[in-house]
Amino acid sequence: MNQEKTELNGRIFSEDQYYEGYKRIRNKFRKYNSVSVLRKCIEYLHHPTVDRLEALQKQPWFVMLLMKWVLIDDQFDQNRKKEIDNKTTHELIQSVFDLSTVARLPNDFDHHSLFMRGMAYQQFMYQEKFSFSNFARQQLLFAELQPNNYIQKIFSEKIGLEIKKFLELCLALLTRFIATEHRKITKHWFSTLECEYTPIEVEKCLNALSLPILSIRKILRQNDSGKRHSEEVYEQTPFVRFPLIKNSSDYLCINHNVLFRSLEHFVYDLLKEVDSQGFMSKFGTIYEKYVGKIIDYSGCSFLTESDIKKAAINPRKIVDYVVIEKAANIFIDAKAVEMTYKGKVTHSANIIKGKVKVSVLKAIEQAQDVLDQIRTGNLKHDQLTLQDLNYLIVVTYKEFYLGRGENFYENIAKEKIDEICDKYPDSPKIMPENMFFITIQEFEYLMEYVRSDASSISDCFEIIKKNDANPKTSKFAFTQHLWEWKATMAPSFVTEKAAETFSKFETLLS
């Protein structure tokens, strides 16, 4: 038996117990026609709700998990089974929820914050409205590249459309679902845009976002280990890769929020899937320049990686940018990465530490090295001096949910960060509470707030630190501080890009 004793009232966590619970659910849905189970699940997800809270009370993450199990099951295509009814469907969904109570609970994680992190990956995607800034950023990062660019060529070869045209069609697709209860879309929805987009181009766009049921089953089975582990309770649904189900000439939306998350990052996700190593080797530089564009837009005084290299007497480690304020240096490193599946669902701090070794931990060492070079005089620049306050911002492409810097230090990477600091015994340190790990969207919002409110980055961080020190005002995620300040506007060059496409549609329709 695979068991681990916990401190939660003598409760025993067991993967075997979880698997037994899964088998009971599997044996029940095996009695019914598989397609009918999927159909009823989707009907349940699309059933009208009064508000967003009621929609969340359906716990769509568990419905998605049930649908995945049905699709990967060995008996999926057995015929002559009866159709499932609503009552039995609801019972199955409730059973998945009940099973989650024998999965890992807070005391079964290395720290309770890791449990919250798993829930964030599992559930936050269903709580957010469509992000036009995330979508428009794809246009800025990818659609404006030269036609012969590697990224453009790989995307076009895979999808059959250039990135710009694909994103424009996705925006037209979005108008079908963003403020309605529609479940399906057909190519006819795009008929008013035929002067600009051919029916074949429309079909290529829809096909990129969809698959027939049997094709989805094939992909899920290829990516599945064949074993059920309790960590999948906290997974982000794989349906993000194919949020539409193709059925003849119809395309059925599985869940609106899943579709939104797919559209927001589709180009990045697809290119990583097609050629992860090749794509990331090209995208890193593009992403770094984009982060610099945001800093420049904010009006902050800063040095680039090139400036730092020129200032070095003997080249050593460097960061991408240093923002220079009156009493603070803010070291900024752009990491064009996302967390792996295992890093999202794990209960283990050691696994997370391993997954961030070449991103977050590397950025910490780079910043600490630059700080030491300033102290020793290896970096000589009129603007670059030792300051009383030193901060680090690691800007990742997607969420890492590492929490506050001191949380990351105490509960995940204390030994590793201490090891880094020990290399610079005489140097000032970037304290864990001065480390911030944020997404590119959060960075956009922060820098727009700094620009429009005439604030400094260090002033914002000091307020956050003060709030996080008080349990009553502490936040789980950086973005919650931004919401509190109503700092949810992207830089104008981002919002203008989305408006530009809408303006094009208005012209076509008129």
Spatial ordering of strands, largest sheet: 7-8-9-10-11
Write down the Rg: 24 Å
- Please, how many helices? 22
Beta strand count: 11
Query: Beta-sheet strand percentage?
Result: 5-15%
Helix proportion of residues, in percent? 40-55%
User: Oligomeric state of the chains?
Assistant: single chain
Q: Can you tell me the overall shape? A: globular
Which secondary-structure class do the elements indicate? Answer: alpha/beta
For the termini, the CA-CA separation is 68 Å
What can be said about the biggest beta sheet?
5 strands, mixed
The pLDDT mean sits at: 94
Low-confidence segments: 5-9
Summary keywords:
single chain, 510 residues, alpha/beta, five-stranded mixed beta sheet, four-stranded mixed beta sheet, 22 helices, globular
Tell me what you see in this structure:
This protein is α/β, with parallel strands linked by helices and 510 residues long. The protein is 54% helix and 9% strand. The chain has a five-stranded mixed beta sheet. Strands 3-6-5-4 form a four-stranded mixed beta sheet. Strands 1-2 form a two-stranded antiparallel sheet. A hairpin with a 2-residue loop joins strand 5 (244-247) and strand 6 (250-253). Helix 7 (132-143) packs antiparallel against helix 9. Residues 5-9 have low confidence and may be disordered.
